[in-house]
Sequence to fold (420 residues):
Amino acid sequence: MNTIETVRVGLLGFGTVGQSVARILCAGHVSRVQLTHIFNRRVASKHVDWVPPTVKWTDEIDDVLRSDVDVVVELVGGLHPAYEWVRAALTSGKSVVTANKQLIAHYGAELGELARANGQQLRFEASVAGGIPVLRALQEGLAGDRLVEVRGILNGTCAYILSRMQSAELPFAEALAEAQAAGYAEADPTEDVDGADAAAKLAIIAAVGLRRPIRVSDIATQSIRPIDFVDFQYAKEIDSTIRQIARAAIEEDGRVFAVVGPALVPIHSSFGQITGSQNLVMVRGVFGGETWFSGSGAGGSPTAVAVVSDLLSIGRHAPRDAGLLPVASVAEVSSDFVAPHYVRFMVADRPGILAEVCAGFARHGINIEAVVQLPRYRKDRLPFVATLEACAASVLGRALADIARLEFHVEPPLALPILA
Ligand SMILES: NC(=O)c1ccc[n+]([C@@H]2O[C@H](COP(=O)([O-])OP(=O)(O)OC[C@H]3O[C@@H](n4cnc5c(N)ncnc54)[C@H](OP(=O)(O)O)[C@@H]3O)[C@@H](O)[C@H]2O)c1
Fold:
């Protein structure tokens, strides 16, 4: 097996993760990896005294792309110009390590092919679940199984917001503001709370673990924004809480299902216990059953550990091992999971509402399991909940479109799957 004597590294991006990677590489305990270049815009403002003077600081990308580095570590984030820089690095005979989930979810197969064609490697362990080495575990440790299902809490912002809504009885807007103040949420939280971040990670896990490349844009996402504190009160009545869950499954007939959105999970389950930046991933294989992974899903240092581990594995492996995404035709994706559901209505109360809601579900062949109405709410904004026996999400969608036409709603009904 070929090995590179010392891996020379050029770092693109000296932000949260970039600085943590540099810290590890400059700490002296990682042998055979040498940081030689740091690139960032307005680089003069980035200088720190703990980086050795042999490292070249630059704000000219070509200083790295045209240098003799063996590996470019892309930590600027975003799709562009990261995509162009990674392409240029691979084309000029350098391997690439990245933590960029959007880049890999959108262009991973293409960039993997480019790496292979140039005898280089593309590694992206840090792009999913931060410091948890889940991709390598799926690819190597569970390679002997046929994985058919994955469920995960893959977004720390949502876990923080939802767990604060639960424990401090906060409305969504207040929990979000608190998350932003604590550094758990961006000023613009759209990618996190509306599901695009978790969808990108799910697409990568599906490609690597389920061996089914899927388009991120084909993964249905449901925002956590409509979740109200009242939903936690009702969820508790059935020993549940609410978390953003990313899930994908392959049916026996080969159909692929994937979705990201809030779901009810048992309050004392592993998923129900996750708070803050912890991530949790469960995969199920035909032969080995369930395997669980948990740990720090974000943060500079945990993510940097994954990046440096990728650098070390590049040093160990022959370029032939490059390209982690199986290149096969992209699978069609359905979001039509069958599950029991929680549906919360917010109504201006009057006699007969329950009968009309029940009739609406019955028209679509949906069986109600229970109806719950907690006391002490205002009559002009009265919440009540129906839990439903297992039905397809599409059938429920049609029933709710029907029911939502009735005049008593003060906000649209909220439907969440109940996951065992
Ligand atoms: N933070 C985490 O916990 C975490 C976890 C897993 C994966 N990731 C991924 O890791 C990557 C980096 O994240 P981060 O949190 O380290 O981001 P960050 O703190 O915003 O750092 C990005 C760095 O890149 C620089 N940069 C951005 N665009 C640039 C451009 N066009 N030209 C030159 N420099 C540019 C920024 O410079 P300025 O300072 O001038 O903006 C900043 O120093 C992202 O892909 C992210 O999704 C992060």
